[in-house]
Amino acid sequence: MNTTPIQPEIVQQKIIDSGLTSIGKASIREIKKLVDMIEQASGEKFIRMEMGIPGLPPAKIGVAGQIEALQKGVAALYPDIHGIAVLKNEISRFVKLFMNIDVNPEGCIPTVGSMQGGFASFLMLGRIFKERDTTLFIDPGFPVHKQQHKVLNIKYESFDVYNYRGDKLREKLESYFKKGHIHSVLYSNPNNPSWICFTEKELQIIGELANKYNIVIMEDLAYFGMDFRNDYSKPGQAPYQPSVANYTDKYILFISSSKAFSYAGERIGMMVIANNLFQSQFPDLKRFYPNDKFGYNMIFGTLYPLSSGTSHSAQYALTAILKAANDGEFNFVDEVKEYGEKAHIMKKLFTENGFKIVYDMDEDKPIADGFYFTYSYPGFTGVELLEKMIYYGISAISLDITGSDRHEGIRACTSLIQRDQFGTLEKRLKQFNEDHPITNK
Ligand SMILES: Cc1ncc(COP(=O)(O)O)c(C=O)c1O
Predict the structure, then answer these.
(1) Which of 94, 123, 264, 364 is the most buried (most CB within 10 A)?
(2) What is the pTM of this model?
(3) Residue 264 CA, closest ligand 1 atom number
(4) Which tens digits make up the pLDDT trace of 269-296?
(5) What is the largest CA-CA distance in the chain?
(6) Does residue 128's CB lie within 6 angstroms of at least one atom of ligand 1?
(7) At what angle do helices 143-152 and 113-125 cross, to 10 degrees?
(8) Domains and CATH numbers, the chain
(9) Does any ligand 1 atom lie closer than 6 A to the CB of residue 113?
């Protein structure tokens, strides 16, 4: 075997220093820290695919809007908890123009990242029915949502959707819903980590069952418009970003500004509550809140004690971004297409060197190229492979921490890798392949 691209002694020492017992099971931030340390000690740059951070500059129009608001003095003023009126109107326009759904501005609420929208929703949904105590995750998923459940002490169950695509999803979901303990469901679409996208049929199944069993669906659209197989970039024109909102009126959408608008640093996202759910009354809420109204208590009973609203200037930034997108002056999808193009090249480099794409199909269609993809290598579990590849200067996360049943898999994020690193990636993958010959069993 050749010497690996990163000196093994350095990797071994830094793994010991990190105190991590299993690299493959470490959280995203722990892996980031370890790789930072190895890069520093070895002087070698990694192909960094562990963290889902935007690799693009922030939407300029947002920065300009935010600076203008700061210069006008908004930093001195508490923002309204439910969001500034101009932003609420633009969010409502945005979901009409890019999703073709009608939501009143009152249900369009800025949050401190979509992360906070999730936290606030979990907190409330666990309390709407006293006899129901469990969230159902359609996995694989974003590990922090489970961490939020743990700190809130809310129960959750989950299943990997890989084997339950299409019609099979109905029976699988009903097997949980029938028991009567599920209050809500969460999934991301496009999916982090696998980049699968639900088909229209699957969204319809989810919506119909939400109606039948009176369950709230949380649809996490952190990667809004980023299924590049279809052009969702034209306001007011089909095709629209697919959504369960077309099939039920019991939904909460989380729309992040972090990836679609490269605005992760300002921690602003959108929570969009269906008109019907916003107006709904749940008598069991009175155990924790002054009345039984869902929308009212989301704002004054939940977001208020969490953070008293969202950064005032960031709300103006988002207003400017959305207004430009809604008016057809800012094509935010075009700005992020680069992720899909890089994914296409990277997937080719991996598969040419013996790797396999783990989640590869949406029912009968190959998945899109986008922000993430998943891979495996014959003879390794994901946890083993992740650790092995550190010696080759390639970092990612294992699917084990995402609720996936595909224990051989790894998630790669395409955002941080630069095109001029593709040569290095190819060389390292080639060497890995030579050092670990695949025996056809
Ligand atoms: C599926 C998913 N949901 C939510 C988030 C968090 O979004 P935000 O930065 O808006 O809090 C992310 C970020 O990586 C994500 O991948």
Answers:
(1) 94
(2) 0.95
(3) 9
(4) 999 999 999 999 999 999 999 999 999 9
(5) 69
(6) no
(7) 40
(8) 8-56+334-435 (3.90.1150.100), 60-326 (3.40.640.10)
(9) yes
